[in-house]
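quick one, 253 residues, struct below
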Amino acid sequence: MNPIRIRNTEIGTGIPKICVPIVGVTQKDILEAAEMIKLSAADFAEWRVDWYEDVLNPEKTEDTLRRLRNILGDMPLLFTFRTSAEGGEKEIRKEKYTELNQQAAQSGFVDIIDVELFAGDDVVKDIIETAHSCGVKVIVSNHDFHSTPPKDEIVSRLRKMQDFRADIPKIAVMPQNKKDVLTLLSATEEMTSRYADRPVITMSMSGTGLISRLCGEVFGSAVTFGAVGKASAPGQIEAEEMAEVLKLLHRSM
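---
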């Protein structure tokens, strides 16, 4: 597996990196959250821009990005519009989704963007092409808030993301029972040991799936998502607590 470097952070080696989402509605809330994340155990921040009240105003969105960049300094910034179909806060037309992500990549303020696999093949390819031309990395993702697909389907989706030239394939699923968590972990191990030539992110959500957020170094997930204040998904725990557990597991390996 070839790790990737974003600013001073290397993803795909050693302890999984901790990403903390920013889920503020107003610019004030967003910038205050960034100040807290900068001082936390987080390795990088994710701006969940679908929460932002002015997300469809390009000037205000770019202004907030600029201010975020100033606060975060050399901490990597992930830009994500999570659609309502995959657990996000807003609906958005495909054309606007493409435009929003391309503008973020071209702004010079973000280091990596998240593109949903099921946004459509052409949408995914267009955004990746623009991002890579700007030197911006891309996570191609899929979030299932209702169930856990079979192991072969999880691996298939991750491989498709890799085929699309995602810098990091990502999948998050909802367990209905403990066996679903094992399915996700088994799929992660198979993907990373047999197919992946780049870092992969996987997780099983909710309290039942919490273990998957902590054992990435064992099974192959390179990034985990924690919280500083408000969580953005079921099962996230405070970044400081997560960092302690990750260090403990790392020392034992």
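The longest strand covers residues 137-144.
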